[in-house]
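Morning!

This is the sequence you dropped in the shared folder:
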Amino acid sequence: MKLVVGLGNPGSEYHTTRHNLGWLVLDASAKQCEAGEWRTESTFESQLVEVRVGAERVLLAKPTTFMNNSGRAVAGIARYYKITPEDVLLVHDELDLPLGTLRLRLGGSAAGHHGVESVTHHMSTDHFWRLRCGIAPENRVEGGEGSRFVLAPFNESERPMVTQVVEQASTIVYEALVSGILTEATLSIPSVGGGE
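The structure's back. Tokens below.
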């Protein structure tokens, strides 16, 4: 069994924030996999839906613990279903990458992302796959944003790119599940309406 996790925060006030990009991708992935309805599982502190991709059983999960405690849910699911870290794919926002950049990597630093730090802590390893979805604006000043930025909704000018990011990221998830192969890669989506 594979486990694909989207990081985010529960509650309607967080639904369209930058920090919930992982949840947006998981919702799109569930549709692409023709999954059923999400179900809330209090035992695993998550919303879950199981799908079959070919012969593979895949569990999609959105932890409802709030971002900083995401690892508690991820580790609990992985333990119960005996899923190895290498069979976990974490989808999350990334302030160190510009909006429109997607990076698929195995392991590596949490880069200050508290959700990823929590997963690393509770799994006792960073040896899981991560699809990092950039959220940084073009004019970002290093260290200039914090929790206020990531907990704010995408602005109007960013939304066309966010739509493309969600579509592309969910396609990456789906194709990886179909092929059974994850390969480290970086993808930059061209700017929307960038001129002639």
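Headline: Residues 159-179 form the longest helix (21 residues).

More detail when I'm at my desk.
O.
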